[in-house]
Specification:
This protein has helices at 4-19, 57-73, 85-89, 109-121, 135-143, 197-208, 222-234, 239-244, 259-275; strands spanning 21-31, 41-45, 50-52, 78-84, 96-105, 126-131, 149-155, 169-173, 189-192, 215-218, 309-310. It is of the alpha/beta class. The chain folds into 2 domains: 4-121, no CATH class; 126-275, Rossmann fold (3-Layer(aba) Sandwich), CATH 3.40.50. Helix 5 (135-143) links the parallel strand 6 and strand 7 (149-155). Helix 5 (135-143) packs across helix 9 (259-275).
Length: 312
């Protein structure tokens, strides 16, 4: 697996090798409200096509025009754009954004590859272990494909996984799925979606037995939760950890049982937890246990280090 930023930079390197030059536009600084965060990137080619985004609107259009002109010249140059979004561009964000533009030429191939390697090493995505490759597991993995999660997808059945898997997911056929909990990275989120209730219980018990796993989600109803709570007590699990179990999973108020609906609801729930910064994957010394949400009708959104694809 690699990171979105690394894939972006390798795509930029491929574009430079093919076309001779391309301009990288990066959000260097922001003040106040801005459409994208510092570090967001967009690449613009000499023919006007582009990938990635710095937030759209008039600012992105102005940057695309200049970046296209610079790429067409093919010279290794840099430029800076400093704009107050309201007064200068009429954008209602109201903040200020500074953009750095740099043209990469064919002679910069090694540097671009080095930058991509550095980006791959700086993997800040949330680790997530998904147990179960059934209908919901497949729908959820697809929903999470463009998002900042590093997924380990576990199932013990032969032929359970689809032939094509998103780039941010690694499949693991395991003869003993509950044992994979011990191998999960500290701070991982865990989702239990298997076809077998006994297997669900074994995985859930193992996950709740690790206090450094802050989110454990189990697919099922309130009735299933009550039964599992009783069994988990019989197994000697701590009451605090039992109470932290997220079951049912997903956002309150979304009751559809179609796999795609469940996947959308759970994806929003997970993004909300990441966006609220209630847990840092870099520091597990002060892990906050993420129990069932008490918020009603919450809608969460995240736009971080996720270059989108388009054409100008």
């Amino acid at each position: 697996m690699t990171t979105p930023a690394a894939r972006f930079l390798r795509r930029l390197a491929d574009s430079v090798a093919r076309d001779g030059a391309a301009t990288l536009v990066t959000v260097a600084d922001t003040k106040g409200s801005a459409p994208r965060e510092v570090g967001a990137m967009m690449a613009v080619l000499a023919d006007g096509s582009y990938f990635g985004t710095i937030g759209g609107g008039a600012l992105e259009h102005e940057a695309q025009v200049l970046a296209r002109q610079l790429a067409a010249r093919g010279e290794a140059v840099t430029r800076r754009i400093d704009r107050a979004l309201g007064p200068d561009l009429g954008q209602c964000c109201g903040g200020r954004v500074i953009l750095d533009l740099r043209v990469f030429a064919g002679t910069d191939a090694d540097e671009l590859e080095g930058l991509a390697g550095e980006a791959a090493a700086r993997d800040h995505r949330q680790p997530l272990v998904i147990f179960g490759a059934g209908h919901v597991g497949r729908a959820l993995t697809l929903a999470l494909a463009p998002l900042p999660f590093r997924i380990t997808w576990v199932d013990g059945r032969q032929g359970a996984f689809p032939p094509h898997v998103p780039a941010n997911a690694a499949t693991l056929k395991s003869a003993n799925p509950p044992a994979e909990i011990a191998r999960a990275a500290p701070g991982s989120f865990v989702l239990v979606l298997t076809h077998d209730h006994a297997l669900d219980l074994a995985i859930t018990a193992a996950a709740l037995g690790r206090p450094d796993l802050p989110f454990v989600g189990l697919i099922g109803s309130a009735t299933k939760r009550a039964r599992f709570e009783r069994r988990l007590r019989e197994l000697g699990l701590d009451e605090t950890r039992i109470a932290s179990l997220n079951c049912p999973i997903g956002l309150p108020g979304i009751h559809g049982k179609e796999p795609a609906v469940i996947a959308a609801s759970v994806t929003a729930q997970l993004l909300g937890l990441v966006e609220e910064n209630v847990f840092s994957a870099k520091d597990t010394s002060n892990v906050r246990i993420l129990g069932p949400s008490k918020e009603e009708g919450s809608i969460f959104a995240l736009a971080r280090d996720l270059p989108s694809t388009g054409s100008g």
